[in-house]
Every structure is written in C-alpha cells, then in structure tokens.
Amino acid sequence: MDSGAITVGVAGNPNVGKSVIFNALTGSRQHVGNWPGKTVERAEGLFIHQGREIRLVDLPGTYSLAAQSPEEIVARDYILSGEPDVVLDVVDATSLERNLNLTLQILELTDRVVVALNLMDEVKRQGWKIDVEALEADLGVPVVPTVATERKGLPQVVAALVDVATGQRSTSPASVDYGLTVEGHVDSLKAHLDKAGIDQRKRWVALRLLEDDPEVVGAFRAGDLSDCCLTEDASPIHPEALRTMVRQAERLRESTRPDAKVEIVRRRYELAHDVVHRVTHRVRQDQESLTERIDRIVTHRVWSWPITLAVFLAIFWITIEGGEIAGGWLDAGSSWLIGAIRTWLTSIQAPWWVSGALVDGFLVGVTTVITVMLPPMTILFTAFALLEDLGLLPRLAFNMDRPMQALGSQGKQTLTWGMSFGCNVTGVMASRIIENEKVRLAAILTSPLIICSGGYGAGIALVIALFGDRALPVMLSLVFLSLGAASLATLILNNTLFRGEPGGFLLEMPAYRQPKWGQVAWRAMVDRVAHTMWRAVQFAGPASLLIWLLGNLPPGAPFEQTPVGWLVRTLGPLGRPFGLTGEMITALLFTWPAKEIVVPALAMTYGLQTTLVESEGPLSYFPQVWGPLSSYTFMVFFMLYLPCLVTVWAIWKETRSLKWTLMGILVPLMTASVITLLVYHGGRLLGF
Amino acid sequence: MSDLMDWLWLTVSILLAALWLWTLLRRHSPQDQSFESHHDYEQVEAEDVLKAAYGLEEEQGRIDADALARAAELPKTLTKHALEGLMAFNWAEEDQEGTVHLTDQGAERAQNLIRAHRLWERYLVDQEGMSLDAVHAEAHRREHSMTQEELEALDAELGHPAWDPHGHAIPGPKGRVPSSPGHPLAAEAEPGRRFRIVSVDDHPVPLLAQLVALGLEPGVNLEVVDREDDIVRVRINGEGQPSVIPLAPASAARIFVVAAPTLPLELGRLPVGTRAQVVEIRGGGKQQRRMLDMGFVPGAEVTVMRKASLGDPIEYRIKGTGVAMRRSDANYVLVEEVERG
C-alpha cells in the first residue's frame, strides 16, 4: 500500500541516544509498558510522516544479540518476529567498532536496516572525521549521520526508514566471513537443516547452533522451534532430528581451535575493525583528552572519596532544598484549593459528611502526596539524567564498587541508594541500571530502608519538636542508622537468599560529554513523573478517605468508640515489646500512603483531630507525652518500617512478581523490628 | 655362438634393468588418481628430487650426486637419472668445474613447493585436526598440484603463518627460507632449565609419531628434570602432565628448542599503563560471552587505564572506549604484554 503504516524497531547499544531519537520523533504520543512476561520496559510511540503512520518500538539497549540477558532476548525475538518493517540501529559514532558488533548481528537477521550514526558532534569534538559514504558502502545499508540532541539528521533518518520499509530502496547488507573452518561447519549444518525441512534463516540458525546459543539450542533440545527461530508456517519437525543436530553442532564446535564461539565473535570484530580503520581519520592531534584529565581527579586514590561524597551530598541537598521551596508553593496552592472547595460546598449547603469525606478525606490525601512527592521526584529525575548525560554516573559506581563488594553487591547500588534518599520510588526505578538480576532485587528490597525526603521532612520537624537542641545529632544518627540498616540488609540478602551467581559487572566508561538541556529529555521525564504521580494519587486519595471515615464515623461518637480508637486499643499490645504505643502503631499504619503525613496521623490517633489536615498544635503535644527513649524509638521505627504505598507499587512494576512485592514489604518491616527492639531494650539497659 | 649369447644376455640385462628402473620410478609416485599424464608423474618425481637438491644446496652450496641420492631416498643407480631429470626441467645446471647447482628457476620452484607443503601442513593440523605424523604424507600429496593463485589464497586464508606445525619456517612469496631457530635439546638440556619446542624433525616418521604421541610438539613448553648418560628426562608444562618422559639421544637430537618464553599473563595483574594483546578468555558462560562482545577478542589490544582507590575495579581501554571490570573477572582474560606501563 502506498501510505500504509510502518513499524520500526529501534535498536542499539545502551547510552547511544536511542531514547533521545525515540522521544524526538514520537513526542508525547508514547506508551510505556512491559514486554509480555518480562520485567523489561517497552516503549512504543507513533508519529505521522507525509500522511503515513509510523510506529516506533523502542528495544532495550544491548551490546549484542547473544540471548543471554532478558534484554537481549527481547530485542532479538522482536527482530526475528518479522513484526518490524525496518530496524533502526542507533550507533554511537565515538565507539564505532564496538557498536558495529551489534550492527553486524542485526544485519544477519534482516536486510531492512537503517543505521543512525549518532553523536557526530562528539566525534568532531574528539578530533575525528568519519567518511559516511564509505561506511555506507561497507555496511550495505543506509547510514545517516545525526546529532539527536539537536534534532539534526532526523528527517533524513525518517526518509531512509520509509524508503527501506516500502522497498523503494534496496539494501545489500555486509556479511561476515567466518573463515574456512567455521564456514565449512556452517555449510554442513545447513545441509542437515535442509534435510530436516527447515528452510528459514538456515545460515543464522547454523551459526547459533555452532555458538551454543542458549535460546536456539534450548529450542532444538525441546524439539519446539516455534518460539525462537522460525516464522509461522514451517511444518513441524521431528524432535529427534533436532537433537541430533545439536549434538552434531557440539562436535563441530569442539573440533575447532579456537572454540567456534570465540572465533565467531573474533571474526565479526575483525570485520568491524577493518571497516572502522577504513572510514575514520584522526583530524586533530591526540593529546591527553579532557576526559582522562578529569578522571585522574575523579577516580584518584585519595580525592575520589570526598568527590563522590560531595556529589551525593549535593544531590541530597538540592533535592531537600528544592523540594522545600517547590513544596511550599504547592502547599500554598493546595491550601487555597481546599479552602475554595470547602467554601463552595458550604455555600451549596452540602451535608457535613460530604464536605468532610471529599475535602478532609480525599483531597487532603491527594494534595499532600503531590506536594510531598512531586518536587523531589522531578528534581531527582532531572539530576540523574544530567549526571548520566555528563558521564559522571559510571565514575561514581566505579569508585564505590569495592566497598559495595563487601556487601555482596556492586557499585551501581550506591546510585540507586542515592536516588532513594530523594524518593524511594525513584530509587526502585533506578535499579534498572543493575544488570545482575539478583543484585538488582536486593537493591530494590533494601531501597525503602533509606530515609527519603518525605520521611526526612516530617521527621526533622518531629525531631526538633522532640529533642530541641539535640535535634542535629539525633537526626544525623538516624540517617546513619538508615544507611547502616540498608547495608546490613543488603549483606544478609546477598549471602542468604541471593547467594551465588557472582559477577556480571561490566561498566562502560564513556567520555565526558556536555549535558544537553534540550527539550527532548524533558518530555519523557514529564511523562514518567506524571504517570507516577497519577498512581500516587490513585493510592493516596482513597487511603486518606478511608482514614477519615475511620476517624469520623459513627458521627458524634467519642474518640474511643471510633474505629481509630478501637485500632489504637487493639494494636497497643503489639507495640509494647518495641516500646511503641498503640497510637504510634496506628499512626504508622495511616502513614503508609506517604511518610509526610505522620504528624497529622499521630494527631488523629491521639484524638487531637479527626482529619489529616496539617496544623501546628500537635507538634507541641508529643514532647509532653513521650519520653526521650520513646521518641527515639519511634523515630527509628518510622524511618525504616515500610515503603510507602507508591513505592510498593513501584516494586510491583519493576518485579512483576507478587512474591517479591511482598518481600519488599517484609524485608523493611523485619529489619525495622529487629533494630527497634535493639534500640529500645538497649536504651532501657543504658538507663534512658 | 658365444657372441650371440653375450649379446642376448646383455639385451636381457638392459631390458630387465629398464624394467626395474621403471618399477622403481613407479614406486615413488603418489597413489592419487588425479595424475593423468605420464608427464605430470615425472614432474612430481623430479620435484621431490628438486626439494632434496634445494636442501643440499642450502647446506653445502652444491649438489653432490651421492648426497642427493641419499637425501631423495633414491637408489644409487638412479642418481644420474635424477640429476638429468633436474637439468631437463632447467632446474639445475653444471658449471665449468663440473659441480651441479640449482638454477634460479629451480630454486624458485623448490621454494614454492616447500611453501605449499608447509602451508598445507599448517592447514591440515590447524583446521582439520590432523596429527603431526600424518600431515607430511598428505601435504606431500597436495603440494604438487597447486597453482600460484591457490597458494596465495591458502596463505592469506591462514593469515600468513610463519611456521609449519613441525616448527619449520614457511617461505614467503619471494623470500628465501629463513632458518629455524632453536638448538637441539640434546645440546641444551640441563636440569632445571625450561624450554619451548620450536621444531621437530619430519624424519624418520615413526620417531616423529612417537614424539607426537608423547605430546612433544612445537609450541609445547617443557622442563628438563635431569640428564644422565645422555638420556634426557623432561616434564611437559601444563595441566595434567605430571609424568616424566625419558628421551633417548636420538630423540633429543631431533627436538629443537629455545628458552621458554613467559606464559600469558592474567589481565587483572597488569599495572596501570601497560599495553597488552588479548590471547584468550578462559572459562565459558555468560561472563565470557559478555567480555567477548565488549571487544575482548583474541588479538585485540587492551590498555590498563586506571584502578579505583582500593585497587578494584579496573578501567581498561578496548576497541576505542573505556570498560571497567573487577579484577577477578579480568583475570579470566589472558594477554601477552606489548609494552610495560
């Protein structure tokens, strides 16, 4: 059809600007979800070009299509499925040889490929020149130079995509010569495949068998090829024949010196190496690059520590400060809104319970959560994106890896913890940067133990009220306790539940770049933040409505006879071993939607008020009824005990597993309980 | 009457001799059916003699008929015929003093043959896994029927190897045959010294077969355990090789060695600033594949850029960009040092 829809699969290494191109082309018409049955994120977008609908599917960034990690499997399966009409391979021009490793693998899967040669501005800055025409000739597919952050080259990319997808432009993709031996083995395996009746992608299947590819070999052994390699209509093949082929491939692989697996990758790199050397030329003399000079300081034996600490502290400080300022605006705005609605409801003489439920219940919860979570989340995502663009994040992980190894973890977990300091939700989401599944899970489960800005914000108000002059040392001790608890939990998790399976730590250290403040990054971030805030509202609204109901029905009843009073009485015994009162426990239950509402929640459970509306009064009440030990014990438990509801949702989204989500609640709860027990009884022993 | 008898006997003798000669010549020809014409047959024979002649000329500067006969394993009676055959092909000529030398043409043809032979041996051992003692015959079979183009293609395909599996140097397209390095083990062996085998004599084949069966091939590192009464006892370096091998003087004289080079190093142990070349990646599994995909393929150049404050992880430069790894993972990569930091 002339203006039929086109589907494009967007592939490439991590951090090459794939998302930038994706966002630039699709704008706000995006949908983010997950690949079916996997925890890998899938982004899909749409745009119209000359009356034609073009659908982009963003594939996960991978260095290879070796089908070892979920990301690689997803990317490869998608290209194999035949669904994309054309594949857009985004290549980092400053790291051409390694990127071509993926490109050549893609070219083995499909003829319809367009290469976007991105980061051309970086190439120029580093003093190189690339002969794009020669590269195009060598690869046999269209190659379009781009600077995605400045939207340069994108129209040409789209034009090329359309041309290739519609068949108007034909390609003759480069193919790797694997040498006499391997090619000989491939031919003999192809003959077997022929005899067995397989007629699709024979060369590719033969190479994968020779390579001992987990997915293909697995499919052959199971006797079922429908999932992996073949497209639809191929007739069923006898399982025994498939198993024989696997054995044959194994024999051939082992008869080769060196191992066929290594030889295949080596030959591919040889071709990549040849191509790169033909098409790139150094224009400027090579002095010690700026990157190296900066790195000498940033990863210095001595200076790396204060620098790393400084970066984390800077982020922490910006988040808190910025959060406070922005929070103030949002607070003022929401107070006005609440006031206006309340006035309006009174003017139309709505019954007290409508006003109560809607405003004091539902709206208060919603506005509080937005006020508390929106600023830090926005600031954090921005800061993270900028640091990533700059190239600083890998250096931080590099510096912190060795100490984290002692916990059984790795350097990247400090980055997720850093995010958690701002907002636990962002910390959980950031865990995606950890490739090793087990370490990633441990990072997710321990994130809630890190004190977030919501907890910090309300916490410091309480601490000041409770401890007066000693507020600062108390607060510091709580922060260290939180960090210590998270480390301990990580250590224990990685040595029990997640024991074994080491490694997987391979960190790319790109050159430092100037971060681009382009609008393109904003759009995606706004989307993500909006999506999360919407979820938060969906949880917080009904939750705080429920709390209001518990506190205000039956109407007119004295405190003890309300459900809140009942909860306080019932949960009292539960808290005694920990030195916590029933009011505290109930309040902590009510604080689940967002840690910021702990003070009004306490006010409710102590019968001081019946709504979660913030007020000054309660803060002066608690120091009168709590001794120092009770105060401290409460603060400890409060800091650690549970991830807020939104964080629980984020954990669910990342793990897609009920089991791990429940563990995400259980791990902090157990850790908090143990530590609180120790603090309380230890304090008692010490005479507090 | 006796004159007639004499003539008869002489004729019969000559006929018998001719017959015998003919059968002798047949014995040296290859079994291959692809040789169709008698002319090719003769050429193959002559080429074998040529190679022997070439070897002689290298060693002694001239071609002595007796020595030639010995080297080419011809019966003495056919020596003259052999020399004449060489000259018929314009590969040898007699100078004024009557000594025989190879012509330029002959030298070139000999080099090509040797080159083809050794390249084939290389191919058969590396790509088809043939054992050292079997390759000689097979390579011999193939060396005569190669065209120059096929030869160059084979050379390129194998990556221009410098040594054949026995350790002998492979001549370049135009060059002379460089001499093999290495000295006989018999001469060098001292208890405690470590050597690497660089070449093993092709002949006699049964001896070569025995050495190969014991694991004594070019590229193998060994250590001399002791030496008594000219019997050298050695142990091969490497995993699973505990037993000591006694070598008779005849064997030790045919194994050529150089001092053992350093073993490939583990990447994680190299200091900052070192440049090295990847040799192999040990172990299998996901991590190996991941490292290969990042560019740590055999032959790739890697530079040690920096180490984190506590010595771990380590940043390497490979394929143009930086990649950081833990030391324990880096030790799976074996490299050869190119330049010390």
Describe the structure.
The complex is a heterodimer of chains A (688) and B (341). In chain A, the strands form two sheets. Chain A has a seven-stranded mixed β-sheet with strand order 2-3-4-1-5-6-8, sandwiched between helices. In chain A, helix 19 (453-467) packs across helix 20 and helix 19 crosses helix 25 (617-625). Chain A contains 28 helices and ten strands. Chain A is of the alpha/beta class and 688 residues long. Chain B has helices at 2-28, 38-60, 65-71, 79-88, 104-128, 132-143, 148-157, 185-188, 205-214, 249-254, 285-294, 327-330; strands spanning 92-94, 100-102, 183-184, 194-200, 221-228, 231-236, 244-247, 255-259, 265-266, 275-281, 301-307, 314-318, 321-325, 333-339. The termini of chain B are far apart. Chain B contains twelve helices and 14 strands. In chain B, a hairpin with a 2-residue loop joins strand 5 (221-228) and strand 6 (231-236). The interface between A and B is large, with 51 and 39 residues.
Brief descriptors of the model:
heterodimer, A: 688 residues, alpha/beta, seven-stranded mixed sheet, two-stranded antiparallel sheet, 28 helices, 8% strand, B: 341 residues, alpha+beta, six-stranded antiparallel sheet, 12 helices, elongated
Query: What is the β-strand count of chain A?
Result: 10
* Secondary-structure-derived class of chain A: alpha/beta
The beta-strand count of chain B equals 14
Q: What class do helices, strands and sheet pairing of chain B give? A: alpha+beta
- Major β-sheet strand ordering of chain B: 3-8-4-5-6-7
Approximately what portion of the residues of chain B adopt beta-strand conformation? 15-25%
Kindly report the average pLDDT value of chain B. 78
Largest interface: A-B, 51 and 39 residues
Rg of chain B: 27 Å
